[in-house]
Amino acid sequence: MGSTHRQGDDPLDDFERRVVEVEGVGKRVYVSGSGPAVVIMPEMPGISPDVARFARWVREAGFSVYLPSLFGVDGAYPRAEAAETVVRRACVAAEFRAFAGGGTSPVVSWLRGLARVAHAERGGPGVGAVGLCFTGNFALSMTLEPAVVAPVVNHPSLPLHDPAGLELGEEDAAAVAERVRRDGLRVLAYRFENDRWCTGQRFAAYRALLGDAFDGRVLPDEAANTDPPPFFREVVGCAHSVVTAHLVDAAGHPTVRARDEIIAFLADRLDVSPNSTIAT
């Protein structure tokens, strides 16, 4: 396995392109694989080649992947110019509430509907939800859909102006904590130690809400890929994306171990045979 990211755009031609409608709102979703469903939400600035690579790893481990297009250009290599277009547009969009705080992003309602659709189509004990960066906390918010049984919260960055915020309204936060307690859910989460977009304060807030059900894991900054795409180097500006842009694709590397831990977590919760998972 190589240690560098891909330099070009990804045609995503090994995914089925669909429009999934939930309560009258249709969004493009890329679907591939077989087995129980995992909804993988993109990080900023969109479904990059690195996000697609992670989705393929999950698919190859024995899951059906549902990858919704929420912002940006699907398959585009993350260039710094996206900060002036994709990020700015998403930050002011009502469906994300990037700066509002104190409330759950409205897009989560659509994502819960996607989880219901995916579960109906693929069966199994439930659905996995993996959030990344801008969508990190959405994986937790999605647990208010009963089908979601395996939430993975990767370096959640919202709300942008409150390092200890969780992007959950008070009622939703209480309902999430109750669902986690009642159904014995576990929430797996990752961040780099000095990530300025996802701070230790945020992980502490998750633990305060969820107690021991929150399994927050922290990687040292020096484990991050030192040559990420321009958007991450020039705009993000710190070690941030554990299993995508800052992953070092080398056997035994801490970021690859994090990837394998996520897949093992999904396999355990969704009852997929360990023999189906990627070899470490």
Task: Describe the structure in your own words.
With 280 residues, the chain is an alpha/beta fold. Helices cover 33% and strands 18% of the residues. The chain has eight helices and eight strands. It has helices at 49-60, 82-92, 107-122, 138-141, 170-183, 200-210, 230-236, 254-270; strands at residues 16-22, 25-33, 37-40, 64-68, 127-132, 148-154, 187-192, 214-219. It has an eight-stranded mixed β-sheet, sandwiched between helices. The longest helix is centred in the last third of the chain and has 17 residues, at 254-270. 49% of the residues are buried. Mean pLDDT is 90; it is low at 1-5.
Helix-and-strand structural type: alpha/beta
Radius of gyration: 17 Å
Taken from the alpha-carbon principal axes, the silhouette is globular
Number of strands: 8
Report how far the terminal alpha carbons are from each other: 11 Å
Low-confidence stretches: 1-5
Give the fraction of residues assigned to helices. 25-40%
- Report the total helices: 8
What would the keywords be for this entry?
280 residues; alpha/beta; 8 helices; 8 strands; globular
